[in-house]
Structures are given as structure tokens and as C-alpha cells.
Amino acid sequence: MKNLLAKTDGGIKLFIIVIVTYLISAVFNTTLVLNSLNTFISLIISILPILVLVFLLMFISNLFLSSKRITKILGHESGVKGYIFSVIFGILSSGPIYMWYPLLSDLRDKGVKNSLIVIFLYNRAVKIPILPMMIYYFGSLFVLILTIYMIIFSIINGLIVDKLLLTKKQ
């Protein structure tokens, strides 16, 4: 049994804990558990169309964007276009951040500006799959303003890092 628990993924362990918690709670208060499940199901149904769109966009972006193409768009002479694409690529990127480090290092070696890498990393905080949930809980105006601030400050921080690294090189 110990060996099985050691091999089990953390997500599966959490899922089992949640199910056991629901079962124990159902023994004491069935109405509360049923209300909780109904709320969960209605929430899933309300955000399902947006999630399908998000996964479709992520699939399309992963299909058409290669490292060579990104380097061409984000080179040292990219200008404003580079900043815009860096913001967009950062928002559209998915997966664990540590998986992006080798690619970003490679892109940096091929001529991508430090500021664009910083902007990309900052904009990974704008998670498209989480936006529907944020809108549900905080409202669309709040999420819109927060997202705009995150994008603006990512560009400001990218420019600051670029200036600091240029000063350090000299």
C-alpha cells in the first residue's frame, strides 16, 4: 500500500481526498453537498464554451508558431511590433514556466532583446483559461483594468531590465 501511495500522482491524491471529504460531508449534511455539487456543475456549464474557445486558440498557436519564426519577429530591430508580439505570445503561452526557459535562452542567444523576454514572462501571468473564472468572481471591468495594467507594467519592467543590463555591459 505504501508503494502505491508513493507512485500515485499528487493530482490523483488530491482528487481522492476531495471525494472522501465529500462522502464524509454527505453523511452529516447531504443538502450542503448537493448544493455544492449543483453550484460546481452550473459553473462548469457557464464557462465551458469559453474554455473550448481557449483550448482551440492554444492549439492553433502551438501549431503555427515555431522558434525560428518567433526569433524573426522578436529580433533586435523589431521595434513596437516586437513589444506587441511579446505581449501576445506571453498571454497565449501555456505549460509550466520551467519548460520555457531553454527556449527563451535559445531565443536570447539568437538575438531576442532582454526586454522582450521580460515582457513575455510577465504576460504569462495573464492566464486565458483563468479569465472566465476571474470575470465570474470579480466582474469584467475589474479583469479588463487588471489585464491592461499587467500589460502596461510588463512593458515598463521590460524597458527597465533592458536599460539595467545595457548599463551593466558598459
Number of domains: 2
Q: Output mean pLDDT.
A: 84
| CA gyration radius, whole angstroms | 21 Å
Question: Structural class, judged by helices and strands?
Answer: mainly alpha
How far is it from the N-terminal to the C-terminal residue, by CA?
Answer: 61 Å
Largest sheet: none
Q: Which range does the strand content fall in?
A: under 5%
Would you count the extended β strands for me?
0
What is the succession of H and E elements? HHHHHHHHH
Overall shape: it is elongated
- The portion of residues assigned to helices is over 70%
Low-confidence stretches: none
How many helical elements? 9
Characterization of this structure:
- With 170 residues, the chain is mainly alpha-helical.
- It has 2 domains: 1-48, no CATH class; 65-169, no CATH class.
- The protein contains 9 helices and no strands.
- Helix 2 runs antiparallel to helix 3 (30-64), helix 5 runs parallel beside helix 7 (114-123) and helix 7 runs antiparallel to helix 9 (140-169).
- The chain is elongated, with a radius of gyration of 21 Å.
- The mean pLDDT is 84.
Which descriptors apply to this entry?
single chain, mainly alpha, 2 domains, 9 helices
